[in-house]
């Protein structure tokens, strides 16, 4: 049979050949100088090396950095402007000498780790694979992957080669990540709609039930942008329905794989998809591809013909990711018709092991790879699937699997998410609220939703039990209210999130970063794994344990870096350079804006993710700039068709605060011609405000409360200047109010509370309330909560 070539769209663009001048080699080794801090070391017994792309590394055609090579009888010493790599020919081992004289062996003894395949059934105990970051300053990535040839096919290695990449970036973690993307390919720009709220549930909805549910979200003004339909969209009871005798796998029914709409549940799937799409919902369907295309499927005849099977034989089309004919036919006949009807992308819920017909080929990797390439035929590509090793960042988004509904699952999920940046994997999507088993706990649900708002993808999800739905109204009234407000705020965050999405794509900067990326020289930055930077402006400290019943608050131990930080929800102001316990009731979790933070929000109603007509800003005093990035959100021409608008805040010697809106620049057809601005100066309590549009003064007002400057019908190209004078800065409450505030909320005997309050106040001297609290008989937890609330 004539070999079939993969369709062009399934062939990835790779440039694996390094310049000859970047290479230093001997009989059984080859070293490629990729950057001044990144080296490829190959070792081969027979002198054959690998020039193809691999599953992980696609680009070695980097410009050769200046270097000097000393190739002696025993060693090879390669010196760049940053480091010196020493390779021992006898042992095959290497070391790096930094400019400060420090010598580090090329191993992973202090590796900061990366991530893992899945959290299925996980209680919060992780077994991470190595990442490309290390406390020692040197990390090694071993490339054991298969090859990717010029025709886009996955093929076995043709040589017995040890292939390693040495990352010698010291504590420049962002630099390491950026260069990792240079050799592996960057993170694609995620479609804008993916950054809103997702609805997902493993449940056999009928068409009318699903429509009614989504209409309820609309009626309650809870913005949802992605509508997920789990596996019951297709026939599941196949043996009963079609008179077949298929066998299932462990924990999986014979109908786990399916491609034909269940017409009992969805009598008119085209109308169903049309209804969702017209109301701004993007649709994804769940897939378990392992059993191929069976003879009862609607598209069986076309698929069978495409792969060379006689349809009259009713021979099932086997799933085989190593067969080009199957891959071509699979996408053309199975997926494209549904995509043309309104399915935006696919949730590849692969759980059928790691083996395929090719030794060493994980079918999950192949599915992620080819599905992403194919999904790009009409718009920006997207999938939802599990992690399949280094390089998986090219295939967003990551589905982290089925977690238990337990505090222990939530407790380390932020750390799991942040740490994945250490292997470039920045777009985890969790089952927010937990998937299965566990316990019913309204507080747990709320904290999970609040974390989800400040995670890469906020996807509510649960198992097929009628008792486990994650609809906010399924929980008690106060929790429902707080959850709805959290989901609305996530939608407002889309302009901020999308700009950070652009930074990930263009600069290699993760949305959720471990604290040590921004503060690599501070030891405390390595101790708080659940705490993270959320984009350039915000720091998040999720609440992952239950509230104290007496105080009505939950605590989280946080490290506050140097500088001034302000909670965007409570207004609490923190001076940094210390470790502190933060206490929060149910309405919010600690989300701290840095000094000078500028946070753009959408003020538009509904679930649209179009570039908003109404832009709101949270602005914090200091000196900073923020460049808002906008494009059409879906097309692949974002490199040539986009708009950037620069915003700046500056504070001059405590006398004036100035906020500048630069005129929009770029393809102006992508944004509204006129916009409305709402500028909230969030850490100012009063001010005299003057507003200029261009050189014209249009407003002059005195604000006796927090200034919120509303500007209507401003041309997107206009430059706006807002000047604050005679302003009063936000401060925390005085010590006596901090003490009375905490004690008044404390549940218990009013007599006892009165005694405690009086005993503290008696100790106060010269208004030194903190010392009085410290010397008091108050419980330690109460003392800590008072300390947080003091100036």
Kindly describe this structure.
It is a single chain. The chain is α+β, with helices and mostly antiparallel strands and 791 residues long. It is 22% helix and 26% strand. It has 17 helices and 40 strands. It has an eight-stranded parallel β-sheet. Strands 32, 33, 34, 35, 37, 38 and 40 form a seven-stranded antiparallel β-sheet that branches. Strand 1 and strand 2 (29-33) form a beta hairpin. The protein starts with 22 loop residues before the first strand and ends with a helix. 47% of the residues are buried. The model has no long low-confidence stretch (mean pLDDT 96).
Structural class: alpha+beta
Terminal-residue CA separation: 79 Å
Question: Biggest sheet, strands in spatial order?
Answer: 18-17-16-15-14-21-20-19
Radius of gyration: 29 Å
**What is the β-strand count?**
40
In DSSP terms (H or I, runs of 4 or more residues), the helix count works out at 17
Helix share bin: 10-25%
Described by the principal axes of the CA atoms, the overall outline is globular
Give the oligomeric state: single chain
Mean pLDDT: 96
| Major sheet | 8 strands, parallel
Portion of residues in beta strands equals 25-35%
Low-confidence stretches: none
